[in-house]
Amino acid sequence: MNKIKIGIVGAGMWGETHARIYQDHPCAEIVAVCDLNKSKAENLAQKFGIRQVYTDYREFAKKSSCEAVAVVTPDFLHADIAIACANAKKHMIIEKPFATTREDVYKMVDAIEKNKVRVMVDFHNRWSPPFVSGKQAVDSGELGEPCSAYFRLNDIKWVPTDMLPWAGQSSIIWFLGSHSLDTLRWYFNDEVDRVYSVSRAGY
Ligand SMILES: NC(=O)c1ccc[n+]([C@@H]2O[C@H](COP(=O)([O-])OP(=O)(O)OC[C@H]3O[C@@H](n4cnc5c(N)ncnc54)[C@H](O)[C@@H]3O)[C@@H](O)[C@H]2O)c1
User: Fold this and answer.
1) Is any atom of ligand 1 closer than 6 Å to the C-beta of 15?
2) Which is nearest to 78 in space by CA: 178, 156, 145?
3) How far apart are CA 153 and CA 28, in angstroms?
4) Number of other residues whose CB lies within 10 A of the CB of residue 201
5) More confident: 156 or 92
6) Which of 8, 72, 75, 85 to mutate to test the pocket of ligand 1 (most atoms within 8 A of CB)?
7) 34, 44, 47, 73: residue to mutate for ligand 1 pocket, most atoms within 8 A of CB
8) What is the mean pLDDT of residues 142-158?
């Protein structure tokens, strides 16, 4: 069986999860890793037997032998990496949120379309058994026609204050809420018309 050669950009907490999954997958082989932080890249490489190690995503995109890339850098840093990889004709799985500004989205989609590469965003609720059961119950008509939904996620303050050093350059609506929004689009098989939002700051 031909294995897809994978490169991972971002050797942080979630990059390691990607590595574990690809290592177990019969159709994947991790050939390259890239992280600005050399020791993080080297640690991941050592742990998973990855031969090609980079600290510059441009060099990674140009020189690495991977066919597909997992972009697993902080939320606000997906765009330039995805564009460089698209220009190098790499297919991609890009972590959610795809991007955090409208300008980044347009630039990324342009590069992806121009280079005809395949891209998916890692909205993995779509493969998560409890969510899939709910979706099947909607699609089969078992629950009737859905007309409203309520989606709530709770997180502890430690996640944005300490666990994610870059949380201040993203937001809870990006790193958590994007899953909720995608799941609702998928359940309703529809897009959002209008958004009503309430936020509360403080303790
Ligand atoms: N799908 C999910 O449920 C899920 C879960 C966790 C995280 N994520 C997403 O994964 C992404 C990474 O999250 P994380 O928790 O692993 O963050 P992290 O901070 O642990 O890791 C990010 C890594 O990217 C590296 N990096 C930053 N800029 C870089 C660059 N220009 N080139 C190469 N490497 C660079 C950092 O050095 C760091 O090692 C985020 O977008 C996050 O929202 C998704």
Assistant:
1) yes
2) 178
3) 32
4) 4
5) 92
6) 72
7) 73
8) 88
Helix 38-48 to helix 13-24 angle (10° resolution) is: 20
All residues at 6 or more sequence positions from 11 whose CB lies less than 8 Å from its CB, including other chains: 19, 33, 34, 35, 37, 40, 41, 43, 44, 72
pLDDT digits (tens, 9 = 90+) for 57-76: 999 999 999 999 999 999 99
Strand spans (E) along the chain: 4-9, 28-34, 52-54, 68-71, 91-94, 119-121
Q: What is the pLDDT of residues 81-103, one digit of tens each?
A: 999 999 999 999 999 999 999 99
What does the alpha-carbon distance between residue 147 and residue 160 come to, in Å, rounded to a whole number?
A: 33
CA distance 144 to 180: 21
